[in-house]
Amino acid sequence: MSDPVPATELDPNVWYHVTEQNVDKDYKTNWQSILQMNQDPKVKDDNLHVWPVKTDDGNVSAFWQFQPMEATPGRYRLRYSQTGADVQLSVCLQSDGDEKDTETRPCLRNATNHATQQWDVFEFKSNSTYRFINVHNGTGYHMDCTPSGSVFMSPDVDDRPYQSAQHWLMTSASNVNDSAYSTVAAENSSSTSSKSSTSTTAPVSESSDHKELSSGAIAGIAVGVVLGVIVVAGTLAAYFIWKSRKKKNAATGSKTTTTNNGWYGSAI
């Protein structure tokens, strides 16, 4: 199979149903599984699974939003419909696995702009399947899934033989239509959770009439004012000292003239 290409056409205003090819073979049949968290709140389980859509309580609504990062085509931040806009797909180390190769796993964490929460998504054009690579882990790991088990980041990235569990299928489930999901962690921040407008709408430049002075500019103005005050004060002080000395010298000069006239006029 030819190399995949960056998936640049995923719509941030769409909730996607995600599954993997090992359980749902193609787009021609009704999918039986969906990428989801454990739906039982009584079970302590931080892992993702590709489990059945239908349960005893009805169909599982577990969908994914792909928020693109404009700087890199095919790079996204992923949100999960059950955890809200302030949580994103990340990677974590889990120690409950028997095999070391499965301990790095996708997980959901509070949103930041850290590389652990950035995902490069590639599309295989020949069969419309996708590959997920975490930016922090790099190309040496592909998102994979153990049968009936946990989703993990696999270090086995060889395309031969064909690894269907590393090929993911996606289809739109519904529109997002929620302004809360149009903002993400600021791209110029490495680990903060501050928000800024992103890819669903172009960021609006702030008018220069409303820009505030930077702290450096304010400090420069303050220093300039202080120096100005010092110069004026110094000038006034010098003037008054000069004037005082002038008066003193004038008085001293008058006394010296009188004394000298008396001395020079005395007889030898």
TrEMBL record:
Its transmembrane ranges are 217-242
Region (Disordered) location: 187-209
InterPro entries membership: Ricin_B-like_lectins
Kindly give the Gene3D superfamilies that the UniProt entry links to this protein.
2.80.10.50
Q: Where is the composition biased (Low complexity)?
A: 189-201
Task: Please name the CDD domains in this protein's record.
Answer: beta-trefoil_Ricin-like (cd00161)
Assigned keywords, A-Z: Membrane, Transmembrane, Transmembrane helix
**What name goes with this protein?**
Ricin B lectin domain-containing protein
Source organism per entry reads Fusarium irregulare
Organism classification: Eukaryota, Fungi, Dikarya, Ascomycota, Pezizomycotina
